[in-house]
UniProtKB/TrEMBL annotation:
UniProt entry keywords in alphabetical sequence: Signal
InterPro entries: PrsA_foldase, Trigger_fact/SurA_dom_sf
Name of the protein described by the UniProt record: SurA N-terminal domain-containing protein
Comp. bias regions, Low complexity: 30-41
Coiled-coil boundaries: none
Amino acid sequence: MPKKLLLSIAAALAAFSLAACGADGDESASEQTEQSQQGEQPLPEPELDNIPDVVAVVNDREISGEVFAESYEAQFQQLAMQSQMTGEEPDQDELKSQALEMMINSELLTMEAEDQGFSSSEEDVDELLATMAEENGLESGEALMEEFKSQGLSEERVREDLHKEVLIQQVIEDLDVAEPTDDELQEMYDQQVEQLEAMNEQVEEDHAQEVPSFEEMEKQLTEQATAEKENEVLSGRIEELREQADIETHL
């Protein structure tokens, strides 16, 4: 979905690390971490020693090193587990840079929301938590919060991020995004059919996937095309905000 561009760290973590966690017996993030730690190779540790007290200043609003470290450590936990499977250790300098850019974008869009008069209540955050929990196969917002805590994020920090997410979603909903045309949907369909047919050529006939009709895929194609258009417009808006902003980074 378009809102999964997700510029707040807590919400990004939900989409990034909890997609496989569910009430049907799937492993939680904490269980995965414990199992990884019992493996042959130890997990790499996040490098937090040289993070300054203030990692960035965005239009006179500071992003503290403490807040950055908490978010970075939670992200790194997930990448470390992935790196154990691939055998490639994460590039921490690159990851820190990406995490900081995400936080700067979040601050800029939060400021944009505030300038436009949008607001976020505790009820809005509870509703968002419940929605995210359902999307990730968890029973409740409380269960999702426990997953966040297992990743090293405090409840206060998560709720603060989700307040920003509520504001950011209102900015996104206010963007002028064109609806996908029939020609665009047909082009996307043709591309996906071509990819599926190419995959089918690589497998035995009894393992080949049936090619769905356009009508069967139309809803999914529309959502995908809309998301792409929305992300493109949002990325452009972020670039405009960055050009207008006074941004200092100290990482």
